[in-house]
Amino acid sequence: MHRFFVNEKNILGEEQKIIIDDKEDVKHIGKVLRLSQEDRIEICDGQNIDYIGEIISLTKSEIIVNILERRLSKTEPLVNITLFQGIPKSAKMDMIIQKCTELGIKRIVPVVTERTIVQLKDEKAETKKIERWQKVADAAAKQCKRGRIPTIAYPISFEEMLNEIATYDLRMIPYEQEENRGIKGLLKNNGDYKSVAIIIGPEGGFEKDEIIAAQGKGALSVTLGPRILRTETAGFVALSILMYEMGDLGGI
């Protein structure tokens, strides 16, 4: 069943109707998928609630759907995980966002570090890039039937990140010089976590002083194995291990 996201204001509870008015979705439903009256679709409000609905009318500007069923989404992990990602070059961020969205990330925060090569020229260029990244997250969330769309934050400095991670129950930073502590052992020796921050460097990794600063804020360095992973790989490998060990991937 095809799945779409709508804003909560588009869900008319008393009338048991949902209005889809996003131009791209309207076009996709009517022109690409060629759906029509009485066809059923799945709709999510982006707040972990799913709806099964039946199309009752289609126009060029909106589609009205009759609500048949309302239920809690079963695709969201119990732990809230944020990826603090050192901004990489080219389209690597697109893949990072897409794959982490599929795996259940809640939020992705681009971080400017000492080795960050990419420089956002001005506020307009920054906003444009964030909007594009958010669209990547939207599409991935739709494809993998997420109950929430991950938020792509505006870039922050490494120092701002250090202040922000203090609010998380667990802060981990994969580091190639860490040899003894893995994610499995880290979770085994500690209690339950409701929020986790994963901190990944850009190409070339973090400077030593950045690792020390993060550790000073309570970030625990972990190994991802004997091989050096690229920045576009490390984040979703760490996320995959974390999700598996917490019982979200492949059962308990």
TrEMBL record:
Q: Where is the Ribosomal RNA small subunit methyltransferase E methyltransferase domain?
A: 76-243
The EC number(s) this enzyme carries: 2.1.1.193
Catalysis performed (reactions): uridine(1498) in 16S rRNA + S-adenosyl-L-methionine = N(3)-methyluridine(1498) in 16S rRNA + S-adenosyl-L-homocysteine + H(+)
Name the GO terms of the biological process aspect: rRNA base methylation
Offer an example of a GO molecular function term for this protein.
rRNA (uridine-N3-)-methyltransferase activity
Q: Where in the cell is it found?
A: Cytoplasm
The family database entries (InterPro entries) matched by this protein are listed as:
Alpha/beta_knot_MTases, PUA-like_sf, RsmE, RsmE_MTase_dom, RsmE_PUA-like, tRNA_m1G_MTases_N
Q: Which domain of life is it from?
A: Bacteria
Which key words are in the record?
A: Cytoplasm, Methyltransferase, rRNA processing, S-adenosyl-L-methionine, Transferase
Which NCBIfam families is this protein grouped with? PRK11713.1-5, RsmE family RNA methyltransferase
Which family would the database say this protein is a member of?
Belongs to the RNA methyltransferase RsmE family.
Report the protein's function: Specifically methylates the N3 position of the uracil ring of uridine 1498 (m3U1498) in 16S rRNA. Acts on the fully assembled 30S ribosomal subunit.
Entry protein name: Ribosomal RNA small subunit methyltransferase E
Lineage, highest ranks first: Bacteria, Bacillati, Bacillota, Clostridia, Peptostreptococcales
